[in-house]
Design a protein that fits this description.
By secondary structure, the chain is mainly α. The chain is built from nine helices and no strands. Helix 2 crosses helix 4, helix 3 crosses helix 4 and helix 7 packs across helix 9.
Length: 228
């Protein structure tokens, strides 16, 4: 059972389960004007929410947690490779949002600001775990957190589990900085502009790291194919 944010809020919702999201295509989708207007209105609403959170509005914090809990937990899980560590880290991320809501300067979208906090804290946690010698959990352990479609044939279920295990293992072998941008782009589905805001890197560097990360993943996957 995942712990709630009760240490900071009055009985807030618990962090949700990790979402299953497909990789995002390389081509950037065209955003209709009405969609852009809706996104702008949503951004303004979230900024207003942060203002209320800064004044101690627990209900506003609950709404923000409900909106981002699955995405932030999923990102933390993919970065750390361990559900218990991801739970702790995701809660620290939201506690940081709660404590520093008043410091939001409006130089980025609220969503990218939250992801920036998650990315920075994930990299710090990885360094801490490495110093402690705890390392990453195995990819097969990771699979226990992700349900498979039991309606498929047994051989398909086995193949899906095996493929997912290899992807997890390959991700864990990437350098944390490369892992972060690959997860943000291909698993979280963020745009290059959003990743640029989250990481503070120029777009060219973001694209370069994503390309190198994907190349390393492909190389590791090909290695497994050759070994079979």
């Amino acid at each position: 059972m995942r712990r709630s944010l009760a240490t900071a809020l009055d009985a807030p919702p618990e962090l949700g389960t990790q979402p299953r999201r497909p990789p995002v295509a390389e081509v950037k989708p065209v955003v209709a004007e009405s969609d852009a207007d809706g996104r702008a209105a949503e951004d303004m609403d979230e900024v207003a929410q942060l203002g209320r959170i800064a004044k101690g509005d627990a209900q506003a914090m609950r709404h923000l947690v409900q909106r981002y809990q699955d995405r932030i937990y999923g990102f933390c899980c993919r970065m750390l490779g361990e559900s218990s560590e991801a739970e702790d880290l995701a809660q620290e991320v939201f506690l940081t949002v709660y404590r520093f809501a008043g410091s939001f300067r409006g130089d980025a979208r609220v969503s990218t600001w939250i992801y920036r906090i998650a990315k920075n804290q994930a990299l710090n946690r990885i360094k801490y775990l490495d110093r402690r010698g705890r390392g990453q959990r195995t990819a097969l352990h990771a699979l226990r957190e992700e349900p498979v479609d039991e309606t498929h044939a047994p051989d398909r279920i086995h193949a899906d589990r095996q493929l997912r295990a290899r992807v997890h293992e390959a991700l864990e072998e990437l350098e944390p900085d490369f892992r972060a941008v690959v997860v943000l782009r291909d698993l979280e589905g963020l745009t290059y502009e959003e990743i640029e805001e989250i990481t503070g890197l120029p777009k060219g560097t973001v694209k370069s790291r994503i390309h190198r990360g994907r190349s390393q993943l492909a190389s590791r996957m090909q290695r497994w194919v050759k070994d079979e």
